Amino acid sequence: MKHQIQYGCQTYPWKMNISAYAGEVPHIIQKTAQAGFGGLEAEICMLGDYFQKPEEVKALLEENHIVLAALVLHQPWEQPQETDEEKKQSDEAIEFLTHFPFAKLMVSHHAGQTPRGEGEALLTRRKHLLSCMNAVACRAAERGIVTCYHPNSAKNSLFRTAEDYKVLFELMDQTRIGWVPDVGHIVNGGMDALALLKEGRSRICHVHFKDRAADGTWAVMGKGDIDYPAIVRYLEESGYGGWIMVEDESPKAEQDSDGVVLWDGTYMKQFMEGGN
After folding, report:
1. Reduced to 3 states, what is the DSSP secondary structure of residue 95?
2. What is the DSSP string of 51-78?
3. Which pLDDT tens digit goes with each residue over 149-196?
4. Which of 164, 224, 251, 275 suits 185 as a labelling partner, its CA being 20 to 30 A distant?
């Protein structure tokens, strides 16, 4: 039986112009729908005051015939246990998601300027991160919410190379956390995306797409070197029926967030309409 993959848009293209678009939830939802996507994945910082108004967000989504696919929770998670501040925001995110059946909690960690370290120090940081995220995942599961983790390829990321992912998969096996492969970040980390997807297929519960040029720069969908038709074919053939979210980080998105989302929607129509 062929599962139907669902396609959506992440708020990151608008985050690249955060001063103009933070809190502009009606606009973001309308553009997501106009681009032909069926769902939206929102970062808390882009919701603004709407983070405290889930029923208003729900009404806006329904009006535009799209759904909330996931909410993104960024936290430092540097200690063995969550700090009071981290726990408070995590619990607010869980409470928000109780208004959206089937939406996932996507946890994410950006080390920023903090060097990732090496050896035992790096392993300790990784264990702290997974321990804190798992505590969040357990509380979310009590409310019927699935939690998944999105690694990235930033310089100081704790999980960015093939060796890093081996450690990640071992640590994740002891948690209630699923995996969000971001194809662009995987390629940026020097890996074969399709091979890694096959290796970690049983852990996948959400997927991110972003395109990347041969010189390492982010590109709008279809303008990079990643073979997305092959990746979609594999996901379909392997029975994946969850969300694929387009998270465009190309320089063009900073110049024209709306235009890039509309372009990405046009590119993704080949998959949405089953033409891959």
Report:
1. helix
2. GG-HHHHHHHHHHTT-EEEEEEEE----
3. 999 999 999 999 999 999 999 999 999 999 999 999 999 999 999 999
4. 275
pTM exceeds 0.85 for this model: yes
Which helix (H) or strand (E) element contains residue 41? strand 39-43
Which residues neighbour 221 within 8 Å (Cβ) at sequence distance 6 or greater? 209, 210, 211, 228, 246, 248, 263, 264, 267, 268
- Per residue in 32-49, pLDDT (tens digit) is 999 999 999 999 999 999
Q: How far is CA 147 from CA 34, 101, 163, 216, 227, in A?
A: 28, 13, 24, 30, 28
Q: What is the dihedral of CA 53, 56, 62, 63, to 10 degrees?
A: -150
The bridge status of strand 218-219 relative to strand 211-212 is antiparallel
Q: Whole-angstrom Cα distance, residue 102 to residue 17?
A: 29
Phi, psi angles (nearest 5°) of residue 79: -95, 165
Q: Please tell me the distance from the alpha carbon of residue 201 to that of residue 205, in angstroms, as a whole number.
A: 9
Specify the pLDDT at position 275. Answer: 47
CB burial of residue 121 (10 Å; 0-12, 13-18, 19+)? exposed
**What single-letter DSSP state applies at residue 198?**
H
Q: pLDDT tens for residues 77-130?
A: 999 999 999 999 999 999 999 999 999 999 999 777 889 999 999 999 999 999
Query: What number of CA atoms fall less than 13 Å from residue 111's CA on the CB side?
Result: 19
